[in-house]
């Protein structure tokens, strides 16, 4: 696509001219972005309601608020992060100084998904800008109102050779991936993640993959069951389950299963009323294809809570399924919707054994008061990140890096980790010219014996 080539050329020129070099200027642009987002708050919340049925509370808390906070956190610290850092050297290097200089890669391509269309486009963008890159952003084609608004806002803040929004679906993504950019940041599904990585291999471009998977939640018998039910319901039914770190399913101890289900039912009513399909607090499914896929799961196992759905509004009530088996489709793929299978266990060993045999999830949640259980689960299982006695909230602190491991992704971001992800750490050794230790040279008589003493 010739237009894409010319966009990229403009970005390269802007970068080569030093357009992103000044840290003060980067902060200025970030602040301008923050202000513009605030000015557009009403439209942003409306757009999120239109595309995904998000309430203002949810839209602000899980999208706009997170981005505003991230900008504030990064802007405050950026001057320090961007400074070259002195490091020690070793005896063989006597007289020299070591330094790590963070430098931007150049142009970053960000490909964003639809489920948090604002946050998952802008959070990486903020990191990329902070680190001194230019950005080409491709938002999701499935959330057109938000994607259009993102373009308007970013055009208001940045010149097009600094940040460019390119709209479109997989075809446009494919063309973008053929271009030689300097870094690719992808958020989306594992199958598309594979395509992205294949394309990045062709141009040897570094890549971060923020993918998904089936994130488990364990509710042990010693947990505060009422609180567990509240926090599981919050994690699962926020954005109608279309959250990459939503608890995909729950493993609950047999002793507390009935109580957990009773509490879950009551908290669903508290959050969304007797008729969740009519609740203004409850989101909708993004599109017809996604809705149909989810409806097919409804007869997997036994539906004990919810199950109602409204095809014309693309809404599915918060639903809990029992008696599901690992062979059923609902347990074979990431659910990504408001259906919560509840599995029962007797012995925690069973859970550990099954969890170890599954792909490493993006998140894992444990509800238990026991330090021993907490320590076993967090030490013995591998997962991107997670929470003890909570769900989702680990994602919303800039002090914790966020990312997957294994099939749930590679690389991480948020807070300092965003700056690091979008920076190359250049190592510089500044050598003294005051003296020249001779032992390294082939002509040195005692060279080898000195080296043997120094390098052991
Ligand atoms: P997706 O992979 O279908 O799409 C993501 C992006 O890739 C979109 O911009 C889309 O246009 C583009 N795309 C689609 N097909 C492509 C192709 N063949 N070639 C190149 N680009 C292509 O994902 P989605 O449906 O938007 O999002 C849902 C998935 O994303 C879930 O698996 C979820 O767990 C995951 N996710 C992960 C995170 C995270 O932070 N780790 C966050 C949100 C969503």
Summarize the entry for a quick read.
With 456 residues, the protein is an alpha/beta fold.
Shape: globular
The total of beta strands comes to 18
CATH architecture verdict of the largest domain: 3-Layer(aba) Sandwich
Bound molecules: nicotinamide-adenine-dinucleotide
Compute the CA-based radius of gyration: 25 Å
Strands of the widest sheet, in order across it, are 10-13-14-9-8-15-16
Uncertain spans: none
Rounded to the nearest angstrom, the distance between the terminal CA atoms is: 56 Å
Strand content: 15-25%
Task: List the topology elements.
Blueprint: H1 2-16, H2 23-39, H3 41-52, H4 56-81, E1 85-87, E2 97-104, E3 107-111, H5 119-130, E4 134-138, H6 144-157, E5 163-165, H7 170-178, E6 183-187, H8 190-203, E7 207-210, E8 216-219, H9 225-237, E9 249-253, H10 257-272, H11 288-295, E10 302-305, E11 309-310, E12 315-316, E13 319-322, H12 329-332, E14 339-345, H13 348-357, E15 363-367, H14 371-380, E16 385-388, E17 409-410, H15 415-421, E18 423-430, H16 447-454
Parallel strand pairs: 3-4, 3-6, 4-5, 6-7, 8-9, 8-15, 9-14, 13-14, 15-16
Antiparallel strand pairs: 1-2, 2-18, 7-17, 10-13, 11-12
Helix pairs in contact: 2-4, 2-6, 3-4, 3-6, 4-5, 5-15, 9-10
